[in-house]
Amino acid sequence: MRKTLFLLFWPLLVATAALAHGGEDHGDAKTATLAGATTFSAVATSEQFEVLLRYAPLKPGADADMRLFLSDFATNAPIKGAKFIFTSPEDPKLKFETTEKGPGEYLVETTFPAKKAYSMTVQVSAGAQADLLLLEGLVVGKELPVAAAPAATAQPWLTWKTGLLLLGTFLLGVVAAALLIRRRRPAPEVIVKTPAYK
User: Fold this and answer.
1) What is the CATH number for 135?
2) Domain membership flag for residue 124
3) Whose CA, among 27, 29, 75, 163, lies 20 to 30 Å from 181?
């Protein structure tokens, strides 16, 4: 009896197990682009220095507080006690103030008057080293990109197609089980009566 029940329901179990894995992606996960970034950045390098500038979206006429990170190009070690002279080719009247905040970290303050792209020339002197670098692509009025909402890939596993497949599998299992039961039915006993001779 147990064997008959197993034969009756195994196709249904197999179909359910197969459908339970629907919608899963077992391929290599690709790393997503940085979502929810809070700052822009600009980088400039020379044979002596590497300069990284990080800043929040810049508003025309508003105070711009930017973080500048200065490091040695060869060793990537932060450089402290550096002196800077900043200028902007797009607006020579711009004034910049620099304050050291930590090893290799400096606060740069200014006010960009117009909604447009600016660049900054950075004259750096640290000990016996000195160099001139250019930071480009500071766009005033540009907003941070909004991360796109991930597309809904998970589908509900019980749809009309899966329901139809389950029903078909179940009916196929019922038919197969009925055929097996019918085959195994024992043949009726034939009682042969022999006539009694007197």
Assistant:
1) 2.60.40.10
2) yes
3) 163
For position 57, what pLDDT does the model report?
96
How many residues are listed for the chain in this entry?
Answer: 198
- Residue 144 belongs to a domain: no
The helix (run of H) or strand (run of E) holding residue 84 is strand 83-87
In whole angstroms, give the CA distance from residue 127 to residue 125.
7
3-state helix, strand, coil in the chain (%, to 5): 20, 30, 45
pLDDT tens per residue across span 9-67: 555 454 444 444 444 444 433 323 355 678 999 999 999 999 999 999 999 999 999 99
In a shared domain, residues 130 and 168: no
Helix 160-184 × helix 2-20 angle, to 10°: 160
pTM of the model: 0.57
Helix, coil or strand: residue 101 = strand
- Rounded CA gap, 115 and 94, in Å? 14
Number of domains in the chain: 2
The structure tokens listed for 91 are 């607006």
> Could you tell me the residue range of the domain that residue 67 belongs to?
40-139
